[in-house]
Amino acid sequence: MELDERKTVILKAIIKNYLETGEPVGSRTISKYTDLNLSSATIRNEMADLEELGFIVQPHTSAGRIPSDKGYRFYVDSMMQEHEKEVEQLKDVLLEREEKLDHMLKQAAKLMAVNTNYATMVTAPRNSRNTIKFLQLSRMDDAHILAVIVIEGNVIKNTVIDVEEALNDETMLKLNILLNTHLNGLSAEEINLGLISSLKQQAGMYGPIIAEVIDAVAETIKEDEDLEIYTSGTNNIFKYPELSDNQKASDLINAFEEKQLLTQLIDDTNEEGSDEIKVYIGEESPIQTMKDCSIVTANYEFGDGMRGMIGIIGPKRMDYDKVVGTIKTIKSQLDTMYRKDEK
Amino acid sequence: MELDERKTVILKAIIKNYLETGEPVGSRTISKYTDLNLSSATIRNEMADLEELGFIVQPHTSAGRIPSDKGYRFYVDSMMQEHEKEVEQLKDVLLEREEKLDHMLKQAAKLMAVNTNYATMVTAPRNSRNTIKFLQLSRMDDAHILAVIVIEGNVIKNTVIDVEEALNDETMLKLNILLNTHLNGLSAEEINLGLISSLKQQAGMYGPIIAEVIDAVAETIKEDEDLEIYTSGTNNIFKYPELSDNQKASDLINAFEEKQLLTQLIDDTNEEGSDEIKVYIGEESPIQTMKDCSIVTANYEFGDGMRGMIGIIGPKRMDYDKVVGTIKTIKSQLDTMYRKDEK
DNA sequence: ATTAGCACTCGACGATGATGAGTGCTAACG
DNA sequence: CGTTAGCACTCATCATCGTCGAGTGCTAAT
Predict the structure, then answer these.
(1) Same domain for A24 and A154?
(2) In b/e form, how buried is each residue of B230-261, taking b as 16+ CB within 10 angstroms?
(3) Is B120 near chain A, with CB under 8 Å?
(4) Quick one: A39 and A172 in the same domain?
């Protein structure tokens, strides 16, 4: 059996209607809803076919039909090519505030949540090029030294180092030169044991300080391992009855709190490295607890090789059209942010 | 009518039983539950008295009784003096990891959540003494200067400042000296417009840089306004049926996500500045959406005049005993943390 | 190929009644 | 006089049952 023109129209009508109501949709509804001028009986025949083809299912005999995962997939695929919708009003909101990165990302998450009424997430960009850009020790007071480490992409890290006795200016200068000449421009892999012990040796009695600095460097570089994830609109899931029974809601809320669980999503999104928007429907989701949801994700590129992810999570009957539009807008905002920031 | 000895025993028995089961408790249960050897009929008479006194209420005729807010309050008050319970096993867990502050606080929140099965929150310490301890400008590359600001309590802030053209070492040194001699040890209030314009004047053509630094200083000092709040165990609320109907759950989850809402709690806790543990029962809560909950909070002091708050939020029938114990332990851990950190 | 018609299915809903936990009151008891 | 047994009464809960209606599949007519 083929999926001919008419079946396609009917299938889309079924899905669209279901997205709006959340109720199984019957043949009579479609008969009136479309301008095909077909009686409910004809629709019923077609629906039987569509069910056989696996695009729709009946929750129970003598209920209407609801889309299967395959049905949603079909809908999304055909929608994605159809139009390049725009959600203009979002454009400027993000740019208004020239705040620090984390504020901005938090804002982005909230913006998406408000706009779509689904749960959203934004990860901080993680830097793929982890080279040291700048290193500096300063004397804070007699007992403490402040170490500032800047790595590519302007991720900055501070560490306070305790010292036994005050260091004079000359020593500080010496240490600074030592560190910068040897470590500048290096990546995590390039800082090996040989280099470290060589540095310590050259620092003489100040070896322990060097060691602490290098520890801090290591920590800074690996910081993206427990990377920041901002979420928003978590409680939107209560708006969709199919997700808000206690067990499911609890699992979902938990997934959003234990942000580690969301990292699976990130890996999956990053993996293919593509610039496309991804849609996971139901069982396609890499996160087991979200098999009743659909997830839409995209990567953004923050310049300097730093990439992050944005995502929206909602019920399977989400408004794919709007969600994809929103994601696209936010993505392009974040993509261009870096350049604009540099002015 | 008086609250005599026997009534007290019965009241406590009712509350204790209700805390365990979550069900209204009847006279027969109490008759067997206590070792008073009274028949259910007698208990009924006493219960009628207790209801008249306002300690317990009937959800509907011919259901058992449940504690009123006043009843909980009585129970908590009498319990608080009774014993100084200890939760030893928590002691060391926190100290194991010598991580950065935010990790530690996150950990503390999680620890409390796991230990009590309620929702928990921990705020980062906010510094009451906001004086500048250390200031430094460094040249990162030709187009960027890195400003590092340290304020009392070792809160550190970095800002990258764009410059039109490279500054030479001598200029950098001059600016550093200028900033440090004039700003060191000052608080936000003391940095007034006169001082700022005087500084700008002295900096000559580098006035704009000074301006940016001062902006960053301001931002650092006021940073405690949108202060970090760590939460954990949010989804524990699903474990308590009385909180997990959709409307209430949604409101609560929302309160935990929009962390601003929790700040009311902080203000309230800080206000009296006392070192006590506070218990808010039902309507006593400063947060309207939590009027079906109880909240237990305490302040901790992180040295250098920095104080933060920890809190546990659960159903009114929470295990006050355990919660207060847990809070006490975590509080004392955090209180002593600073000193131990200094070694 | 389409449609009208019809018998059939099945969940949702409301009414109904039984069950049982729990109460308040009264009268008897030690 | 405090305590208790007993009893009538209340009320939430739960299962049962019939009704209703949306929706289906099939068949026969167009």
Answers:
(1) no
(2) bbbbbbbbbebeebbeeebbbbbbbbbbebeb
(3) no
(4) no
